[in-house]
Structure formats: C-alpha cells, structure tokens
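re: ur question from earlier - yeah i can do the single chain one, its not a big deal. heres the input i used so u can compare w yours
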Amino acid sequence: ALEAVTEMRTRTISAADAGAAERETAEGELSTALIRLFAVAESYPELKADGTFIELQRTLATLEAEIQTARRHYNGSDRRLNTKIASVPDNIVARRFRFEPAAYYEVEHAADRTRPEVSF
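and the output i got, formated as tokens:
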C-alpha cells in the first residue's frame, strides 16, 4: 500500500503541469491509495503509534488545507475572468481575441471531496 501511495504521489506531482482532467485523475488515484494505506494501518496498532505515521497524518492535514486554499484561489480567478469577459466593454475585446470562459475546478467523485480518515 505504501508503494502505491509513493507511485501515485509521483504521478500527481508529474500531472501538476498537465490539464485539469489529468490532474484531477491523478489526485483521485492518490486519495484512493491513501485510503487503502490507512485501512491497512488500522490492523497494525504499532504502526498507528509510530512517529512517522503521526507525521504523515499532520502532513495530510496541512496539505488538505493548502489544496482547498489553492482550489478557492483558482476558482476565484476563473470567476473574475468570466465576469470580466461577460461585462461591457471588456466583452468586446474578449470576443475580438476569442477569450473563452474558464471552467471551474470541481471534484467529480464524492469520495475525492473528503479527506482520508486517519484515526488512532
């Protein structure tokens, strides 16, 4: 399970410069791998008490907060762009240069919206 998390993490980092769909797919696969890892950890109390595992839990909480902040920023930028290209006189320039409304970043799968549960 840990190898899968490592592999999915690498793929997610590689997909950072890719399109939104590829990035979303990679993030979903990473979330699934993390859920599997924590399911395995439930069977091993000594792992749950390990300092490295506790640090992983803290890191996940920090990363989740950073990801939510980045999504809000991204969607805020999209909202500002969409409002701008729909408003007069900016819409004239937007049509001239063929600006298109930006798509909001949305998580398609409900399971990907929730943080993996890490309990001790």
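Residues 51-86 form the longest helix (36 residues). not sure if urs matches, ping me
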